[in-house]
């Protein structure tokens, strides 16, 4: 069993939980900050049923922040007063904020699109890469306090590699990195017909044939995003290329004609064919490169078992951390009926007829002749009625179209739509029992989006939807003393369950 305090079993991961060189090829020499002493007020340990004693934890924070400007590395760490990172599923990019002192005029030096590497840890001896990013803006602030003392600071804000796919625009009129022909569309009307994505980027099939979603995402990674990164490497060669790790059902296909006229941001294209909620996609960090993850969403049933075994997370990247009550500074979790559904229906988003026509075909082929057949939980149909939820919460519709169901297949995509509707019903049918909310923890670098973690004190397991790390250095304490150091991690959690 993994050490609940982030010990050896957690220290093996492609996320950088083992020693790794920085972008210059040298081993990372991180700063070890003075020991941090945190007092935790007495709280109730639910498994013990008694009040705990006040607990004092002392640990060190290891951190290294490097900014690359025109190919040269600059160590920002000694000037940092506060460092924050934010990651969330469903958002195009992660974000970082670096607050520095005025000892070095970063506002006159750092530039937008400078490359940044952020490393820190509490448990691991070698701090892993928490975020690789690009500077968005640099700001200078001055505040005169009531005593007449001038407070000055510099703030460096930026985003991770998600900034690239959110900014890169697919447009057939302008030559861009990755385009094969320099832009063939000289008449805007032409963009409404033909294999434009294939002719300009080589993505998809000529003649508008179907394409596997993983092939689309690989083409986006190699031809669009990495070509843009290669152009940026002319300024900062330390920037690593993005790599794709894909794990989705082999049954999925994208209609080629629907794909070829895509325009707008790369992120909007990924979002259009990302197949949410059955799949999820995000950019996070491995020790050697940023990674574009495109995978089956690893949701579980109420007993904690994966709905699809094909959704089993790759433990090379997705560890399962364990904590205990004394790791929690603040907790706010609960359950509600905000995502409770009683009627589930899945259909091909590119079906040539309408939803009603597909539903009629499904009902006939599945021989759904009465409510008992449509609500049989041992043999979930498409559509499906959850009678328990229907009687308690009323008619609550979850009806979603998938762009990856090949409606032109011999069965019109029926069998795949049934499997996907079963996933919906099993994933969301118990929503009223799920625990959702926020946990504020003593700093923990193992908390990453897309992971599950368990609180061993309560035997509760949660899925991590968002993570905010915050490190504060050298701020005055409440007693007037200096050199107060703090490392805290706020985790947005969903789908919590207990007793497993």
Output the keywords.
single chain; 500 residues; alpha+beta; 14-stranded mixed beta sheet; 9 helices; disordered N terminus
Please describe what this structure looks like:
This protein has helices at 162-167, 196-201, 213-232, 256-260, 266-272, 355-365, 371-374, 387-393, 414-428, and strands at residues 31-32, 36-40, 44-45, 50-51, 55-59, 62-69, 72-75, 80-88, 95-100, 115-121, 129-144, 150-160, 169-170, 243-247, 264-265, 279-285, 290-296, 322-323, 328-334, 343-348, 384-385, 397-402, 435-442, 452-455, 460-475, 484-498. Among the domains are: 166-311, no CATH class; 343-432, no CATH class. Strands 1, 6, 7, 8, 9, 10, 11, 12, 18, 19, 23, 24, 25 and 26 form a 14-stranded mixed β-sheet that branches. It contains nine helices and 26 strands. It is an alpha+beta fold and 500 residues long. A hairpin with a 4-residue loop joins strand 3 (44-45) and strand 4. It is globular and about 80 Å long.
